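Q: Start with the shorter request: fold the first protein.
A: Done. Sequence, then structure:
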Amino acid sequence: MFNSLLGAKARVMNAPGTTVLLERGSYRYGDETWNLVDTPGTYSLLPLSPDEEVASQAAMGTDGQPQPDLIVAALDATNIARSLYFLAMVLELGRPTVVALTMNDLARRNNVGLDPAELSATLGGVPVVEVDGRTGKGASTLMETIAASFHGTPMPRGLHAIDTHSVDVASWVEDNADARFEWAAHVLEHLNLESRARITRSDRIDRVLLNPVFGILAFLAVMFIVFQATTWLAGPMQDWIDGSVREWCEAGINTVFSWFGPNATDSWFHGLIVDGILDGCITVLTFLPPMGIMFIMLSLLEDSGYLARAAFVMDKAMRAMHLDGRAFLPIVIGFGCNLPALAATRTLPDSRQRVLVGMLVPFSSCTARLSVYLVLAYAFFRDQAGLVVFLMYVCSVLLILGVGILLRQVKFRDLQSEPFAMSLPPYQVPRLVTLVRSVLVKLWDFIKGASSIIITMIAFMWLLQSIPATANAGSFGHVDDVHQSVYGVVADTVAPVFAPAGFDDWHASAALMTGFVAKEVVVGSLGQSYAINSGNEDEQQQGEGTLGEAIRHSFDESSGGHGRAAAVAFLLFTLAYTPCLATVAELKRQFGRKIAWQTVGLGLVTAYILAVLAFQTLRWVL
């Protein structure tokens, strides 16, 4: 409904002093501009969570929030009984109020459709407008009704207006509860819905999808399809962007530089443009296919009504961390890509849950880390490579559970497990136009929020690789050996930190540094550094001809002959530390700078502890 009024013009922002998401926007009607604020959904003005508190403050105009000139209360026609008590509280605020009746088309199919004029008369003259949020039908009538109701709406008989500045909310809610219930019962009796109700198609489907056994199996099947669709469809597109698009862009840049002379393409500025800025832009573009596909799949699940069922089915599994079932979906999505998983945390109604799940999502082993798992698994455990990769995903699940329980005990002590109740929407076919618009808006938000950080950091990595650190390393922009650049020196400086984990080698530390930008470049970084340092024929004949052999040789050397234990430690470090720079940017955009860097620090500390413990234990076994 909100998007029907504003199109794609809404702005997502946090409520002041909170991490609760609000949407703001404006539209023109007649000669005036109307400003709208969309609050989190709630069924009561007595707040029990930060989300409900923000919604209550916005409706009542308390705690620094501006007084609303008019309130639009959205009522779901398929479950009108649940909304009437809340509507009574809104009407008692004494503000002009318009009821937006949604989902009435589905209610008619179930023989419980409502006549807006009859409902308005039953409510004592409160304006009621039927709105279809998917098609936008009724939006213009709603705008007209808002303008006409701006100066006041009648108070239904049985309800009494309050002074929001002086009232104690808890006392008000309790003292007048009986009157509200009586009023709601009177409205329902007049509408006579129970006699018309019948078993719906959604009810029949839910008998299977909400079954404790078949429901979980169905959810796992759906998530497998989502995950496979993301990887299968996005992979070729990412390869095309990283291959063909990169080649076309480089060719175009080279053509432009050739206009300035035959040596222009050898300049450091050309290196900055191609290996710094262009590489950053290509990295951003390669994230768009998996994010776009995941956003499409999520929107399909949400708009169809299945997402609410999945949350209900997985509720018990999340109770160990005092989370409810809705928190499971972002974590599962994280096994495909952490970026859309972080965006999916916006579906959680409680801001504390949203932050906790956001801090756990980076521990979901995304597909970008799979390339690292495969290379090291084949290098050290060729006959058991598949088992090793599988165990990495098992470790990811155990890590999420362990860190989640730890965070709940340390940082989220006030996060208590509460009964999980939610309204299950009827199943429906998603509308294509709404779906595409929603996905494009989300992708554009990512590009605006994360691209500048990613491009800047990749350009900074190029700068470090282009500055010679020794007299014989070459000139700026033309370093012959990356090991002799500032980047290589920094990697050499950092390497001893990993001695307790068994891989105090500059190749490994350099790969982990580039992996902070994107895990996709870890294997490329290893290949580049080993190729530079093992390029002569004698070394290749001694077993340095392949990347796997080079990694085995250096890990064996750095670990004192315990290369397999060091490989496991490296894999665990890769699993646990920051997935990529884009994830940090998305964390900052969703939760703020403080939470973003706390999550980065948590990942680094956890990764280091795991790597050290793994090596110090496994070196006696492997």
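Q: Next, the second protein, separately.
A: Sequence, then structure:
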Amino acid sequence: MSVLSHAAAAHSPAGTPHCALLPRPFPTHTYAVGDLLTDLRAPSTTTLRTAALSARDYDDTRLTAYYKDVASISPATGNFTRSHGGELLIRKPRRAGTRFCSISAEKASVRALKDPFGAFEKSVRDPAARDWLLRAARARAPVYWVAAVRELTNASYAHAAAADAGNGLLAVRRASFGEQAAAEEAELREDENGDVDGEAMRRKMRGHRRRDSAFEEPTKTKTDVLGAEIREVRVKVTRPDAPHAPRDLKWKWTYLKAADENGEECQVAVGLGAPLDQEEVADLWEEGDLAEEDEEEDDE
């Protein structure tokens, strides 16, 4: 699926950040405002973090005390796929086997930018960024930029019990420890066909049982990164005298002077796209995680 399926304006004025829910909680500083990445799923090895931005560029005014949320959990990967806010009544998901997580935190804070495009220009004009963008363009690698980050302080995560409330709605509440234990035991006893020796048990015995990573892979940090505004970046290497792209709704462009692999002067056109929506962010991880799982099964 293309991550450009929506056509929100890339150059709208700064407003409320579009922080999509990430697939799981990440340790503090895994993603930071101003980061450039080629693979969102591997930030430790594909991120360029420069010192181009300063405290004056950030907007740290958005704080929420006693944060609460309910998140959908993918039955295929165990990833968070959608935020429902603090609602107790939510629409039934179309995907069979979807579970829910109750999230609560002492505090939620969002670091955004006062002038997103101005900050983007600062980020990509850093000398290290110019070389990095050239390498990404030569490798035809996707490029993303982090424009905002949501962090939770002292967060806790638990399965949410869901009950039919009629009219296509589910009533959700935080499950007790006993309910969570019973649900896990039932999952091990039988698979979806009621076969006690079925796939669920075989996966458990092989050590490949799908885990809900939010619960079984703690970040071990007081503050978790759970949301981010992620924007796609387009990079084109052109002749130094190439005309600039016309203004459009999907991209806002800036232009850099650089030297190519032969030392010849070139122009690097760098376009900033609109924030990826929740479905697009979830799909980036879902498709990647499922592909990795298929590779692991092929190797067995």
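Q: Describe the second briefly.
A: The radius of gyration is 22 Å. Confidence is low (pLDDT under 50) at residues 1-9, 190-211, 293-298.
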